[in-house]
Amino acid sequence: MIPAPTVPAALLQAIPQTEDYIRILPELVLSAFGIVIMLLEPLLDEEKSQKLLGFIALLGALAGIAATWVMSGSPGLAFSRMVKVDSFSVFFHVLVIAIAAIIILISYEYMAVQRIRAGEYYALILFGTVGMALMSSAVELVLIFIALEISSISSYILAGFRRHEASSSESSLKYFLLGSFATAFFLYGVALMFGATGSTNIDIISQKLQAGPVPLLVYVAVAFMFVGLGFKVAAAPFHIWTPDVYEGAPAPIVGFMSTAPKAAAFAVLLRVVFTINAPGRFWLVWVSAALSMTLGNAGALLQTNIKRLLAYSSIAHAGYLLVAFAMITPEDSANGVSAAMFYTAAYAAMNVGAFAVVSHFANAGERYVTLEDYEGLGRTSPLLAAALTIFLLSLIGIPMTGGFFAKFYVFSAALKANLVWLALIGFMNSAVGAYYYLRIIVMMYMRESRRDVPVTPIPWGLGLALAISVVATLYLGILPNRVLQFTRQSAQEVVQQRVSSPSEATGAVRAPF
Amino acid sequence: MNADSWSPYILSLVTFAPLAGALLLVLFPRRDRDIRIFALVISLLTFVLSLHLPVYFHRAQAGFQYDVNQKWISSPNIHYHMGVDGISLWLVLLTTFLTPLCVLISWKSIHDRVKEFFIILLILETALIGVFTSLDLFLFYFFWEATLIPMALLIGMYGHERKVYAAVKFFLYTMIASVFMLVAILWLYAQTGSFDFVIIRDQIASGALPNFSAAAQWLFLGFFIAFAVKVPLFPFHTWLPDAHVEAPTAGSVLLAGVLLKMGTYGMLRFNLGLFPEAARRNAPWIMVLALIGIIYGALVAMVQPNMKKLIAYSSISHLGFVVLGIFSFTQAGLNGAMFVMLAHGVSTGALFMLAGILHERRHTYEISEFGGLASTIPIFAASFLFIVLASGGLPLLNGFIGEFLVLSGAFQANAWYGVLGATGVIWSACYLLWMYQRVFYGKVTHEVNNSLADLSGSEKLAVWPCAAAALVMGVAPILWLGAIDPAVQAALSPFAQVVSKVVGQ
Questions:
Q1: Least CB-CB distance to B164: which of A434, A447, A484?
Q2: Alpha carbons A460 and A464: distance in angstroms, whole number
Q3: Is residue B82 within a helix (H) or strand (E), and if so which, with residue range?
Q4: Which positions ≥6 away from A198 have C-beta within 8 Å?
Q5: Is residue B398 part of a domain?
Q6: Do B167 and A382 touch (CB under 8 A)?
Q7: SS3 of residue A505 by DSSP
Q8: Which of A411, A434, A484 is opposite residue B175, by nearest beta carbon?
Q9: Minimal Cα–Cα distance from B73 to chain A, Å?
Q10: B320 domain residue, yes or no
């Protein structure tokens, strides 16, 4: 045996241990399943392989959730303080992977109807999920950037998967060009932050900022990072891409893009903003929140295409969510973080559900995506119409749905922090928003269909996805207790970080043996 | 089981029985007849269950009875808190009384999407009962909003030509108005840490809230706007005629009979209960608006060529009486306001049913299309006359008692209010009797009207209970007022000094 003591202790710490791997186990599992799909794809018969590959992907997502459960058993830092497992990251892991699982269920039928044959579709969903999951647990700005890129690049490709449609390629290219531009801003912000504080580790930056006067450069850095993340969550004024990209991309992928990467980007934003206690964030965030709510809702009023309408609605919802970021004091912040986390979950449930309906109803070539096509759906397919109605009511924010409590927590957090006017802008906007969601319900139930729109029976995969989304939406609206307690606890952890001393915050340093 | 062991559950049972019925209906095959019978059974069952409430109600007692208070959501601190007092008790009964009649009146008139219709109707019943039974502001707000969707669907799916316009207008008007109430509720929660009506009321009364006096006016207005749109108080009334004209008969009956009362109930419970000071300060202009509503509603009703619109505007006029009574802050005025609510629910509900029956036969509400119907359909004409007289305030029928009490309360507050309000009674006799004359007397002007069918069995079953109730309410109002009086007294207790001031003026 070679004697170990000659190796310096710092170097020993850099060697990953078993626990390090457990703390990124979901990412590992998802990547493994993605690779298996890529390897199997060329070996299998193209006609028949689709179902099998989809099934493997679904299995992968479920294994990912199981791995998250294992991961949650060993909280702490890993890989030289780059990754952190706490209840905050566990929450977003579960959320993102669950969204991926439901999207895979929806894609099953969609791929067959659209005649898209490609195993890499499922693999890309899993790889994208890896990036998003990693975003929520990374506490090192460079790693966050890498995770952001992993998730973004897979979404760029996924957006262009309707290869025969020019609009899909347009969507992909637009998303790619603008997205790279925005991530460059984020990277620039990271670089400036490094220049200002000498570190890219969130905890260390936080300590530095608390210790001394805040250099001007930090303000610029925070603003730049906000630009990059604001693009990802489709917050105004960085929202222009959203309607075009959503219109062209495959419907299940839009359901994915509008929820999972958004949740992940919000997770990063929460960590960066609240753990670093980013200076000057208040004005930045409230301007963006007010703009997003107003522009999103105003834009949605005029849409005739349901995908574009939901795109504008997602801008508006990003605005509601940002309201939770404008809190200043630690107690308010904890409320805000918890409200934002709850919002991402509720929004995911209802929006994924809505896109499940849209992608089923769109039919081959996504022919039926205008609002007029939905006329009389209440008669032709009562189940589909009822499900969509529940999602739309939740998007409006009617009590007993997740959307209500989501808005409720966000606005009451704002009221508690005495941001009455911001809450009022939010309330006004929800009233405006009610109009265009209601329009769809009116179309479905109160008008007769004028065109002959075929409604195919609901296959089991989609049915399951719809059922899960409906149950989740109602569960969050009727019994929000458990989820809320979890988000509260995580929020406390995230916010307390900056109050507590650094050694506590970073956890005990592991002994070499 | 004896009555007491039922008490903690009875309110939840009454509230959620229709919802359970609606969920069962979802599973039903689309056999229209079975669905109708099942809906009738469920609504009757709910009515029978709700009879438990007045039978075992302790009339002399003022506070909330049958209450349940369970923790529902820990953060925010939301409780499942329900209870009724002498005020809400009767509104619950009114709802459960009218719903089976709505099922009966829709028996034949709804033949398309029957299953959906009765599901929506039963869900609406649960939401309406919930509004009157909940004592947690959050729960109240939930049920309040929950009434919107089924009502809008009833109008929009089963209404007449301009149904979509009317449904959307109804939804947006009331939804936007209730946002103000939500802000006020959230503010109260932020200050008190509770949504519980009783806790908040006591905290406000004890003066424990530091920022309250500055905010009271805004809070009062926040609640008031939501309620005023619902009532509807002039000038927030424009949604009502559209909604009524387009709604199917059952929708109109519940809209006029119960939904409008949510607004006046809210004023009584929350505006007076939580903000007595602000209520007193704002009473003058509110009473003026109520008077304008009484007179304006009556005058517009007079010139309506459309029967249903006429009844809709008469509702605006009658609800003006309720608001006038509430903001007179007198025992007589509040008793009267409560009684007008109930009487209006019964008689206007019946009027809408009768108008609906005519529409079913002739597909029009135009008064000029009729004439001389008394000779062709005598039973219908007699029933109509009875209800018209009840609604117009003939002594010994239900309309009279309430209006009399309101006016005597208004006189105590200010003689001018009483005088102007009293003209409303005259107006209502004018427009109702004139309408009756044009429709039923004279010669038959249109050939088709000679072959109209008289009331059918299910229609009699729907209309006559209302007539019977109108008579009993007119002859023995004490049955109702006995429970209303102590509750009103309790509601007025913060005004004890205030009342003497008003009277002293």
A1: A447
A2: 6
A3: strand B78-84
A4: A208
A5: yes
A6: no
A7: helix
A8: A434
A9: 6
A10: yes
Q: Which residues of B204-222 are buried (b: 16+ CB within 10 A; e: fewer)?
A: beeeeeeebeebbeebbbb
B57 at A interface, C-beta within 8 A: no
Tell me the C-alpha distance between A488 and A475, whole Å: 18
B364: left (phi over 0), alpha (psi -120 to 50) or beta: beta
Residues of A in contact with B157 (CB under 8 A): 378, 445-446
A122 CB contacts (<8 Å, ≥6 apart)? A34, A37, A53, A54, A56, A57, A104, A107
How far apart are the C-alpha atoms of A31 and A299, rounded to whole Å?
Answer: 38
What tokens does A376 get? 């009389």
Q: Is residue B212 part of a domain?
A: no
Rounded CA-CA distance B210/A121 in Å is 60
Instruction: Return the minimum-mean-pLDDT range out of A430-444, A499-513, B63-77, B110-124.
Output: A499-513
Q: B6: burial class by Cβ within 10 Å (0-12, 13-18, 19+)?
A: middle
Residue B405: inside a domain: yes
Query: Whose structure tokens read 């504080």?
Result: A197
Across the interface, whether the CB atoms of B157 and A445 are under 8 A apart is answered yes
- pLDDT tens figures, B267-302: 999 988 888 888 888 888 999 999 999 999 999 999
pLDDT at B453: 85
What residues have CB less than 8 Å from A267, skipping those under 6 apart? A88, A89, A92, A135, A136, A344
Residues facing B68 on adjacent strands: B82
The pLDDT of residue B262: 92
Which residue is associated with the tokens 């025992």? B331
Chain B hits for A439, CB-CB cut-off 8 Å, are 168
Report how far Cα B460 is from the mean position of its chain's Cα atoms: 23
Cα B315 from Cα B330, distance rounded (Å): 23
* Residues B337-395 pLDDT 10s: 999 999 999 999 999 999 999 888 888 888 888 888 888 888 989 999 999 999 888 88
A332-346: average pLDDT: 89
Structure tokens at A483: 């989820």
CB-based contact A183:A228 (threshold 8 Å): yes
Q: Is A396 exposed, middle or buried (0-12, 13-18, 19+ CB in 10 A)?
A: buried
Structural domain total, chain B: 1
B215 touches chain A (CB under 8 A): no
- The residues in A 367-406 lying below 8 A from B, measured between CB atoms, are 378-379, 382, 393, 398-400
> DSSP code of A215?
P
Whether chain B has a CB inside 8 Å of the CB on A423: the answer is yes
Instruction: Show the domain range for B493.
Output: 285-505
- Band (pLDDT 50/70/90 cuts) for residue B502 is very low
Which of A378, A399, A438 is nearest residue B168 as measured by Cβ atoms? A438
Q: Is the peptide bond before A459 cis (omega within 30 degrees of 0)?
A: no
Contacts of B187 in chain A (CB under 8 A): 415
| pTM, rounded to two decimals | 0.85
Spell out which residues of chain B touch residue A395, defining contact as CB-CB under 8 Å: none
Residue B80, beta-bridge partner list? B70
What whole-number distance in Å separates Cα of residue B476 and Cα of residue A201? Answer: 80
In the Cβ-directed half-sphere of A224, how many Cα atoms lie within 13 Å? 20
Mean pLDDT (whole number) for B450-469: 87
Q: How far apart are CA A353 and CA A99, in angstroms?
A: 10
Q: Is the dihedral of CA B287, B291, B297, B300 positive or negative?
A: negative
pLDDT at A510 over 50: no
Rounded to whole angstroms, the Cα distance separating A410 from A285 reads 14
Contact status of B41 with chain A (Cβ, < 8 Å): no
* Tokens matching residue A247: 């219109």
Contact A435 B142 (CB under 8 A): no
Query: What is the average pLDDT value for chain A, to the nearest integer?
Result: 86
Helix (H) or strand (E) holding A427: helix A420-446
